[in-house]
Amino acid sequence: MAEDKPVRSSGLPSRGTYSEALRIGEILRKETVGGILLVIAAAIALLWANSPFADSYFALRDFRVGYEPWHLELSLGAWAADGLLAIFFFLVGLELKREFVAGDLRNPSRAVVPVAAAIGGVIVPAVFYAVINMTSPETLRGWAIPTATDIAFAVAVLAIVGSHLPSALRIFLLTLAVVDDLIAISIIAIFYSTDLDFVPLLLALIPLALYTALAQKYRRFFGLKPAAAWFILLPIGFVVWALVHAGGIHATVAGVLLGFAIPVIRSKASGGPTAGPGLSELFEHRFRPLSAGFAVPVFAFFSAGVAVGGWDGFVSSLTDPVLIGIAVGLVLGKPIGIVGTTWLLTKLTRVRLDPALRWVDLIGVALLAGIGFTVSLLIADLSFGLESAHNDHAKVGILSASLLAAFLASIILRARNKRYRSIEEQERVDSDLDGVPDVYQQDEAAGRSGGDTV
Which helix or strand (DSSP H or E) is residue 304 part of? Predict the structure, then answer.
């Protein structure tokens, strides 16, 4: 039986290298705190927006500040969506570049499964939503809402239910979320950009080029230590963000571009690849707490506050095809797309499910990926506008579907915790006391000998 199988190196999902497992473990620990804050902020907003003091919540969300000649007189809600989320997407850019340059995704054999699964997990929910809303062009615009995965919310669920998810499944989940974010930002840039003004967009290329050059050759230009470089790069990055925003492309796209510009591996001119952390690691260390602990929870606070209208209002929203499409897309479409694509790969290629795991484990992770909170809320705002009833119903759908997906995933993952603990114990064994668990050394040896089928 699968319950008695030992941990093995072959099969999917890939456990990756030990250094990658440590790095991703650290990221997920930080995201856990952020996810809990995210849930608390959303709950406060939802309660406030449906309390006798609801008018004060919406007045706060719609309060405008900023400099109008620069097109920056925005509501606090817009500042959170366009400004604070740019920090989140800056980290997405850093993570994407690191994964494809120095992480496990630089290996095509390891990247193909999670990347394909993520693509399936985007396409199927979008198709489900589109089919349900096919007869309504007005609501069809929200087709991308159920395509996103909120990694912070997902790992918060793992922390709350006390799951001992193996490192391979954690890496698989994070990779799904990272690729999801890349697809989501592409969708936002292509389908949700309006009233394009090419003058500021072309002007943005100038500070972006300067930012990139300084980031890549910061020591040559200024002799700066990496920790001090951000004092110069941050103002230039703000100019890029402001020009992209003025050009009509959602400003979070600027965050991804700025993240891509940061070098992942230190150049020889900076002391060699092994001379210590480069800008990417230092920026991630500096900005991830700001993103997870402040930027994303504040965005959730301003975006999740929707006046449901009591029980009658909630029941009436259940008939809106927007809500139905989102719920079906996140709770059914995500796991069908992810698990179905992965299963199809096992039939068409040499990839096989790791014998230490079962398909139900991937179903549990895929349900976690159905928690589409942060980016889904952003796309809902872009699809329908803040004052639209469809937007309110979309947010009710996102909240309800995310909670349902979290609940179903919790049931599956808790039921498998005994097996996960066994895998975790095996992954900690270090017989030769060299600081690297034996299973990772066995994986490396199997890869060199051609025994790794992923």
Answer: helix 296-304
Cross-strand bridge partners of residue 64: 75
Q: Kindly report the backbone phi and psi dihedral angles of residue 71, in degrees, each rounded to the nearest multiple of 5, phi listed first.
A: 60, 35
Top-tier CATH class for 2-192+250-448:
mainly alpha
Domain boundaries, the chain: 2-192+250-448
Q: How many CB atoms lie within 10 A of CB 2?
A: 14
Where helices occur in 192-251 by DSSP H, the ranges are: 198-216, 218-222, 226-246
Q: CA-CA distance, 283 to 270, in Å (whole number)? A: 16
Pick from 421, 433, 453, 368: which is nearest to 7 by CA?
A: 421
Give the pLDDT confidence of 209-267 residue by residue, as tens digits: 999 988 887 666 555 566 667 778 888 999 999 999 888 888 788 988 999 888 876 54
Provide the sign of the torsion angle of the four alpha carbons 324, 328, 331, 334, taken in this order: negative
What six digits make up the tokens of 46? 């939802």
Strand duo 64-65 + 74-75: pairing:
antiparallel
Q: How many residues does the chain have?
A: 454
Instruction: Answer whether 0.85 is exceeded by the pTM.
Output: no
Can you tell me the distance from the alpha carbon of 332 to that of 243, in angstroms, rounded to the nearest whole number? 39
